[in-house]
Amino acid sequence: MEGLKVWRLSSSIARPSNLRQLFGLGTSSGLVRCLDNGAAAANATNTRLPSRNRRASTSTSTSTNTSDREAVRAIRLKKVEQLRSKGTEPYGYKWDRSHSAKELQEIYKDLNNGEELDSESHHVSIAGRIVARRAFGKLAFLTLRDDSGTIQLYCEKERLLNDQFEQLKTLVDIGDILGASGSIKRTEKGELSVKVVSFSILTKSLLPLPDKFHGLTDIDKRYRQRYVDMIANPEVADIFRKRAKIMREIRKTVESRGFVEVETPVLQGAAGGAEARPFVTYHNSLGRDLYLRIATELHLKRMLVGGFEKVYEIGRIFRNEGISTRHNPEFTTIEMYEAYSDYQSMMDMAEEIVTQCALEVNGKLTIDYQGTEIQLQRPWRRETMHNLVKEVTGVDFTELEDDLKVAKDVVLKAVGLGLDSKDKSSIEACPSLGHLLNEVFEIFVEPKLLQPTFVLDYPIEISPLAKPHRRHAGLTERFELFICGRELANAFSELTDPLDQRARLEEQVRQHNKKRAEAVSVTDGTGEQKNIDEDSMYEVTLDDDFLTALEYGMPPASGMMVALWSIRLVRVPSVNGGKATEIEIFCGPCLQGVLCLGRGTWNRQVGDALDGFRQHPRCHCFSRFKDFTVTGRMPLLEL
């Protein structure tokens, strides 16, 4: 069978600089990859395309794996037919369970090896997925896994009803979901088992699970098919259980202090509260663009204007920016506001939340992070950004002149050795001393903040929503909490002066528009734009209604945002030797876009398939493709 083929835009055709521009999607490898399940489609492809554009495949592993998978599926589909022909529905409706696997393990933990409890009082009923099986003549052993753990099914031919033992041997596969009933037995080798009297196939699995020796180790597949990941790597499910515990503990902690949970709009007329690229959608009835929120801040502050004194929200945030193992376009934040308090109050709240969650999840106030023991005992270190930068780099920003160019020269002289070109460019591009201080902090200081540290008093240029510092001009009453070298929380004494707030937000819009204009380089002779920084191309809107709300009067207040995905209280397990990452806590993280055309689509000619692409709502530009170079085939189209 033929292997991988890749259609790429012919070099002879004028084309957009990348597929991201073409499809309006995330970053792309620049290839449009398509897959077919059989050689017939490959032959049709070669018939349709000119011979000068055909190239022999050099890869067979993808084809072989797909072939094996399809062969297994075909066999299991026949088993579905066999079950139905015998009057057995392979997709059941209900199963009454008496116990979970964990409950049985706990109840019968003192049962001796070789002991069997066959009385009616010890008759149990369980259900779960079969993850392992062994058969020896008239005896079979199956490992059943449910949400709580695993238990063995002990199956004897003489004990099972009717022809169920033959069904077990011929029609039950690893991955099937079974319900089973029987008595309790501990084998001579010490394995607690359900001695099965009868069983029922509740769900017939059609696709094979990853084998038990290698599991699911491919990172892309693990994240793209999280359901398979959880089956193959049970420890992954523990991450989501710990996440749920953290959510419960956060609610318990803040509500014990009198905070009220509220819900604010996800669809908003203006994307405010942060400097981030929003997702834009269109409301047909209103005839206007709306934005998925990039922060909950501005609407929570409206609640303070309306009379609430302590509010919080656990909500989903959407930012149309880069994707990595440390960033997902959608994530959950916990944001809270308290009237008549300042940012010192929020430091106490942050310590309380983190320590309580750590105790709930880990039972202790120490965690191991990549070989370093992190101490969460209170109080935590509190230090200004200026002092931390001076401590690490030797540069004292309080002594630098107001001349930005001179300041940059001093910084580059102090830290220039070993500085990569990207970081050097970032330093040179800073538009103010405040931005320069923050850039140096992020490059040199932030990765070193492993132990809990409150970084205080950020520059006013990068803190448009924070109150000016009451003692230090040019700074704000703002802190960020860092643990394990990552930002955990961001908090302010909130700006309540409506005139100052308007001036700062308008300046933020001006600075963004300037950056946006600079991102578009001078066009060349063909009119094609080059070197466009697309992350700067979005439009910033001013939330005038929020500014109007402030003019009615908001009480002095402090506020804090905690990003749930960055909480490192949960020691995310390393799965199959892989590196633990924040993205592990997402049930379905956003990855490179995949458009699956469905089974068998590619058993038609390529031309028919391309017509299907053109009809896809996110592939409106596909008709611009006029010529292709065939270099292989795959089962999906990756955008």
Automatic annotation (TrEMBL):
One of its GO terms (molecular function) is tRNA binding. Keywords: Aminoacyl-tRNA synthetase, ATP-binding, Ligase, Metal-binding, Nucleotide-binding, Protein biosynthesis. One of its GO terms (cellular component) is cytosol. Residues 44-69 are annotated as: Disordered. PROSITE patterns: AA_TRNA_LIGASE_II (PS50862). It is an enzyme of class 6 (ligase). Residues 57-66 have a biased composition (Low complexity). InterPro entries: Aa-tRNA-synt_II, aa-tRNA-synth_II, aa-tRNA-synth_II/BPL/LPL, Lys-tRNA-ligase_II, Lys-tRNA-ligase_II_N, Lys-tRNA-synth_II_C, NA-bd_OB-fold, NA-bd_OB_tRNA. PANTHER family: LYSINE--TRNA LIGASE, CHLOROPLASTIC_MITOCHONDRIAL (PTHR42918:SF15), LYSYL-TRNA SYNTHETASE (PTHR42918). This is Lysine--tRNA ligase. The lineage of its organism: Eukaryota, Viridiplantae, Streptophyta, Embryophyta, Tracheophyta.
